[in-house]
Amino acid sequence: MSEILQSIDETCDAIKKRIDRAYLAQCGRTGEWPEKLFRLWADTGLLAIGLPEAYGGAGGNLREVVYAHDQIFQAGLMMGSTVTNHMVRLPLLKHGTEAQKQKYLPATAAGERYFAFAVTEPDAGTNTFKIRTSARKMPNGEYRLNGTKCFITGFSHASDALVVARTTNPENNSTGLSLFIVDTKTKGISATPMDIGLYFPDKHYVVNFDDVVVPAENILGGEGKGLDALFDCLNPERLLVGALCLGVADYVLGRAAEYAKTRAPFDVPIGKYQSVQHPMAIAKARITAARALMYSACEKYDSGQSAGLESNMVKYLASDVCKFTTDIAMTTFGGSAFDMATDLIPFFLHAKLNEVAPVNNNIILSFIAQKGLGLPKSY
What we know:
alpha+beta; Butyryl-Coa Dehydrogenase, subunit A, domain 1; Butyryl-CoA Dehydrogenase, subunit A, domain 2; Butyryl-CoA Dehydrogenase, subunit A, domain 3; 4-stranded antiparallel sheet
């Protein structure tokens, strides 16, 4: 293990000693923002990983960012907002002006600024080209933003948001999309929490933009070039979601195995039965294989190679085994799994969500068929 990974290991171990799963479970049930955990991500330097020192970061690459998430999530300390925070910095690093980088990046490393990512719309779903949110340029160079976004994670706690909007060309066109840095407190923005009921502290919002004024200097990468900036963060997003899913799978599998060692309704621990052992063993093998591909894809990305196919495979495999494993845990715990005090239902629900978000697994399979097998594009 490299020196930096060992340091991340030690930092994650220290966090896990200070915050336990019960805290996150309570936050999920009450809707409380897990400020204690977010502050530990910031204060220990985990938020600074992957960001150059010139912008207040600790240096490092995507593999190390993914590794930190993997380690924290294996303790059940799931917080999707940290995924967004790291992911959004990538287009800023690659496409931002020097002024934008200096203004926003150091603050994200310190936990003083948190970015939401506003792409999804009610009628567009996975088809980003179909978005209707528009940004009309005014004579003075400012833009007027109008439209609606949905499923926007952590918007009420975000200081800023990256918003994809259409500056030119009609709906359902791949051109004319631009990316804007928007202050979430700007007049004309309203956010309504969605009643999704996942029992996780990261809430999702419907966000409306009503004639929101965005300064000209807040466009990222140039007008009509938002798609390039957007695509730059999609593969890292797949890998970070993979880390989330695999961490959760490890966590619930460990809980199921421990329970199976002691649960003995017929005087023999149920973990002695092959019908209990074998699904767990299959899950362990699949988690290990998916994790190996995840870090292989990270290394490919960090070396500057194309990692799109591998990143999508990771998202598919990780979310699939996460659902498989949470189902095993639910079955192992039996009726008590449905008691919220057992704290399995949130993982079970989130595993299902990750089949369809942040990108639907059916789209991923179509992508793999096209890019990996040379089959015709089907979407």
